[in-house]
């Protein structure tokens, strides 16, 4: 029960890393609000967590919408009395070089991957600073640490999350808010988003093998690999950790 009685919001909580994180935080004692646009899958995860003895509530949520952010945070506090943990997990991705990217696709990706992280962090600080405690965990990526010639917009968004996290962490620390802000940097994890990307490239197994070969550890990550890192940052075990980057990548960036 590493996060017993804490209240968490997990964006993109219906599938992939967000689903694994929602399930693990609930298993470890947190009351979890999982948000997503996928209402069917979101309610399914909510029901399964509650059936297993956890406490979860699904809320439909467009993370790029400023007004919806305020409502989700306020509704969470009304429901559970406080907010201890925010996991800014929702994200999208597509492949395009700096030469081939369109402004429309660039702006859409930034709105989900970067703008939403800012909006969520700001709203969480509004509530958490009055409690003098809280942990905000922003999902960046290995692509926020190193470049990829075909991921121009994605690199920009995840690099932005990395440095925005440090700025927010310093602000909260120097303001005496008691709020910690950290980023998590996964390698390639076999999630629905990565699988969909593999399908677009043709042979799924061939693409999976190619991605696996990028990681010295010899395998792709699974969602729980990341969820356990998030659990650590959400818990009081990481009380001296802020402005940090937790890299979980099978050795990808060690090369």
From TrEMBL:
Q: Does the keyword Transcription regulation apply?
A: no
Q: Does the keyword Oxidoreductase apply?
A: yes
Q: Where is the Ketoreductase domain?
A: 6-193
PROSITE patterns assigned to the protein according to its UniProt record, in alphabetical order: ADH_SHORT
Q: Which domain of life is it from?
A: Bacteria
What's in the keyword line of the UniProt record? Oxidoreductase
The GO molecular function terms of this record are: oxidoreductase activity
* NCBIfam families from the UniProt entry: PRK07231.1
Tell me which family the UniProt entry assigns to this protein: Belongs to the short-chain dehydrogenases/reductases (SDR) family.
Tell me the protein's name: NAD(P)-dependent dehydrogenase, short-chain alcohol dehydrogenase family
């Amino acid at each position: 029960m590493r996060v017993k009685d804490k209240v968490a919001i997990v964006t993109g909580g219906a599938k992939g890393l967000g689903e694994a994180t929602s399930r693990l935080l609930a298993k470890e004692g947190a009351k979890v609000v999982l948000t997503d646009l996928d209402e069917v899958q979101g309610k399914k995860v909510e029901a399964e967590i509650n059936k297993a003895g956890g406490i979860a509530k699904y809320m439909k949520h467009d993370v790029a919408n400023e007004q919806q952010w305020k409502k989700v945070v306020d509704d969470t506090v009304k429901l559970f009395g406080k907010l201890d943990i925010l996991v800014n997990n929702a994200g999208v991705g597509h492949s395009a070089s700096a030469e081939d990217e369109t402004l429309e696709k660039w702006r859409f990706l930034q709105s989900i991957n970067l703008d939403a992280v800012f909006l969520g962090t700001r709203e969480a600080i509004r509530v958490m600073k009055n409690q003098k405690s809280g942990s905000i965990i922003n999902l960046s990526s290995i692509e926020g640490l190193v470049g990829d010639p075909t991921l121009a917009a994605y690199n920009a968004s995840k690099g932005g999350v990395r440095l925005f996290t440090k700025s927010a962490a310093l602000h909260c620390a120097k303001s005496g808010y008691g709020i910690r802000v950290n980023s998590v940097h996964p390698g390639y994890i076999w999630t629905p988003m990565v699988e969909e990307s593999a399908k677009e490239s043709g042979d799924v197994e061939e693409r999976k093998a190619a991605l696996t070969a990028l990681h010295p550890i010899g395998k792709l990550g699974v969602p729980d690999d990341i969820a356990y890192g998030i659990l650590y940052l959400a818990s009081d075990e990481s009380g001296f950790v802020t402005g940090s980057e937790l890299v979980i990548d099978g050795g990808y960036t060690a090369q």
